[in-house]
Design a protein that fits this description.
Catalyzes ATP-dependent phosphorylation of adenosylcobinamide and addition of GMP to adenosylcobinamide phosphate. The chain is α/β, with parallel strands linked by helices. The chain is built from five helices and seven strands; from the N terminus they run βαβαββααβαββ. Strand 6 and strand 7 form a beta hairpin. It starts with a strand and ends with a strand.
Length: about 180
């Protein structure tokens, strides 16, 4: 089963997704973390998220880019991808260190991430994807931000079509869409 969990910033989507992943049961739950720790705020957020899931016994795998290349040595029961929004940003804009892969154009990024979703589905019994809803908070953005929003929207639509379960979390309340 694939589940897409969507919500705004601070909506409670991460906690909902983690609880869903744990409830699916399994001997091995893998948490794919996509936030690159590029500043103190990111490092603090990563630390907070690690503490939140510490008791839930997730194995954490860092994957900032190239999701389609991620291969697990043994099959996990549940994979939680947190979060699609960071992954898209990393693919479109994320050149941090010498030797990193070049950023992708929007068409290539969407295709690569779509392949990555399919690749993960083939490697696990359950895939839970967390993503942000970014279309209800304003209407005037830079061209780069609009490009990001369009790519993320396209990927969210692809994931929602593939998913057997789609839930939007608003103010900590899950609303089942599919």
């Amino acid at each position: 089963m694939t589940a897409l969990i969507i919500g705004g910033s601070g909506s409670g989507k991460s906690e909902y997704a983690e609880n869903l992943a744990v409830s699916l049961g399994g001997e091995r739950n893998v948490y794919i973390a996509t936030m690159k720790p590029w500043d103190e705020e990111c490092r603090n957020r990563i630390l907070r998220h690690r503490k939140m899931r510490e008791k839930k016994q997730f194995e954490t795998v860092e994957c900032y880019r190239c999701l389609k290349n991620l291969v697990f040595k043994s099959r996990p029961s549940v994979v939680l991808l947190e979060c699609m929004s960071n992954l898209v940003s990393n693919e479109l804009f994320g050149l941090w260190e010498e030797g990193d892969l070049p950023v992708l154009d929007k068409k290539t990024a969407a295709a690569e991430i779509g392949e990555g979703i399919l690749h993960l589905e083939q490697q696990t019994d359950h895939l839970v994807i967390v993503t942000n809803e970014v279309f209800s908070d304003g209407d005037h953005y830079s061209p780069e931000t609009n490009e990001y929003r369009k790519v993320l929207g396209n990927i969210n639509q692809l994931a929602a079509k593939r998913a057997q379960m789609v839930v939007e979390v608003v103010a900590g309340i899950p609303i089942k869409i599919k």
